[in-house]
Amino acid sequence: MAKAKVGKKATGVxxxxxxxxxxxxxxxxxxxxxxxxxxxxxxxxxxxxxxxCPMCRQAMTQMxxxxxxxxxxxxxxxxxxxxxxxxxxxxxQEVDDHLKECIFRVMTCPLGAVFGKCSWTGNLKxxxxxxxxxxxQNCNVNMETGVxxxxxxxxEDERFLYLIQQGNLLFIVTMKxxxxxxxxYWVVQHIGSKKTAQQHIYEIHITSKQDPxxxxxFTDHCYNDTLSADAVYRLGKCGILPxxxxxxxxxxxxxxxxxxxxxGAPKPKKFDKSKNSxxxxxxxxxxxxxxxxxNAQRHKSPxxxxxxx
Length: 309
Ligand SMILES: [Zn+2]
Ligand SMILES: [Zn+2]
Ligand SMILES: [Zn+2]
Ligand SMILES: [Zn+2]
Hints:
Blueprint (H helix, E strand, L loop, with lengths): L30 E4 L4 E3 H6 L12 E5 L1 H9 L1 E3 L10 E3 L3 H7 L5 E2 L1 H6 L5 E2 L1 H11 L12 E3 L8 E9 L2 E10 L4 E8 L3 H5 L1 E8 L7 E7 L1 E2 L4 H7 L3 E4 H4 L8 E9 L13 H5 L9 H10 L9
Parallel strand pairs: 11-14
Antiparallel strand pairs: 1-2, 1-3, 4-5, 6-7, 8-16, 9-10, 10-11, 11-15, 12-13, 12-16
Bound molecules: zinc ion (4 copies).
The site of one zinc ion has 8 residues, from α4 and α5.
């Protein structure tokens, strides 16, 4: 077969995958052949009645074209969102996972999902502009200096959501007062790939308005947005403060907190075990692309969700 055309991971060159001659869909396993060797996709083969090859009128067989199936499985295919601008190519089996975090996928407004008040859909490049236009109070904040929330009560469920742009990356900071569970949650999620999310850690600083000496700092790695904030809360892998404790941070129904997001050590277990543990202990050591991890990521990760202006 035309081996040279098959995409090499290193270069990201993608081949045009063979199409079924009947339905013109891209072939995927299982692929069946007729007696003279024409290959048809599974659903077209099943739909033939009688079971005769539409190309040559020979009988179809149960013989699979394993070579072609193998080539397709190993071929780099372009992202289905290529026409929207995604240049990422991947092995066929990785397409479904990539689509969940592809930055060119159609997204819904995070405030719509949480508050049900916005029906906007669009892509990552447009989301910040959408926030600036429609939800300015949810994006025009400097999380590093802190945000002050008013009308906060430990007796009422409440949610807060902020869209934060840091460099070229977007993050969502959420906080939820849950009177049923009697806790307050905080989590920072990156809109984009899991890998980029795990390369970032966040700190939530909550300082008491009643007594500045009282402070809580929570640190964790970021999640990406394939999980909802509620799902992260349920997992408990987020900042959590009992309401009783939280009440000492409120003064005149006001509370302040700040969120600091920085590039940090990735989640150790997901990464090369042979690496020495010192690297993981130095959050700032990997500020620039580590050639080792950088290369490793290129295979599977669509890379950071870079916003181009
Ligand atoms: Zn077909
Ligand atoms: Zn045939
Ligand atoms: Zn994509
Ligand atoms: Zn919206």
